[in-house]
Amino acid sequence: MNRVQRAVAVPGLVAGAMVAMLILYPTRAFGAGGGDGCNPGRPDNFPTRYYIGAEQQPGVEVGGVKGYIYNYSPWVSSTDNPGVTQWVMVTNGPSWAQVGWREFPGSQRDTFVQFNIPNERSWTNSFPAYPINSNIEYAVTHDPNCTVHCFTFYANGRQLTDSNYNFAPGYGEAAAELNTQADQVPGGYNDPSPVSSLQIFMPAGSNGSWNTFTGSTFATTTGGASAPSWANISPSPGTSPNGYYSTWDSACPN
Amino acid sequence: MADITTSTTRRYRYTHKDGVIVACALILLVVGIALGLGLSPAKSSAEPTLPSFSHELFNALNNTDVNVSPALSQQAITGTVSEAAAQATALAQVRPGSQALAAQLVILRNAQWPSGVLAWAIQINEAGGFHAPSAGPVGNQSPPPRNFKVVFVQAAAGTFLEGVSAYDAALPTPPSIPVPSS
Asked: Are A199 and A68 in contact (CB under 8 A)?
């Protein structure tokens, strides 16, 4: 190696090191998630909501809902700031307690808890996400005789948080929620996204027990109208899920 | 007189010195890649310190499911990651383009840490605005409002603990940040 070669090689390696830093540095700052689905190619109509899931009104106070939700990573439109979610919930009118996964645009994900009693208490928690394509049990439980810990939220058997505020839930729900038709429903037509071992605790309190979630499935949009044909659920809307349902988007194979 | 022709055309022999120089350059390359992979801007202590939390923000947080109080000064002295590192961890949990507004070392008490954990609390202004992730049960079409978000980072380990967002009328809504084009 002569002086000329040396003069080129050393600065070249140094410059290479600097280029490597520049390339690798922003990649870490923004990298997130992998993504299962596809861009369904539908025009944006944010904020129009779509719910695909199941509901049960047992006629008694509900003590909880739990089920395994597949952590599918759908296409999320860049306009959908709240993101696509999939969750279990206990609710009564405008009051609810829910836990599930959320994906923002760019495959950024978290585990979220949301509690809402209008004009009294409302907040959202975010926790680290579970891996894409993992099958995680999410659960919310309700103690009707509480003074504290009226609602407790779990993911993968781990207690996430609780609420010291109370209401009497009359419904159990589990659903995927989209905020624009430009989003993808979790699942593809060749590989639907499952919600399994779905159970509801009833009646709330010490006399209750976990039971298979029956009720009925739904796929709806604003005002309760039926969702368009691209939003699919099996068993079909209006049918008992009997503890299991799966969802998919007609535009995506997987 | 020196034979210039001979001295300029002879074959160069690799020497020990050349080996040292090339080895140093390779080490520089490896260090450069390592720095690119391992360092975040938040670990730089050169970044400015954010304002502390307002009394109103503490109140707003304590109206959710967490209990937050300022850390005592002696708790904040040793064994904590830098504020800049905590900022970077917090910003990695929200949409790119979001900004940190305020930072405070706090004692966070929640269901997972009932006795409290020393944490950096970072108030975030989210790119694209504040949004509740869900509008609630099927048929509900109005998500609850949100106007603040705080991300908690464990002070000792620098790991993300949780984020909390809600609405509090006593808090000003920060200016909106557009979502950066991808």
From this structure: no
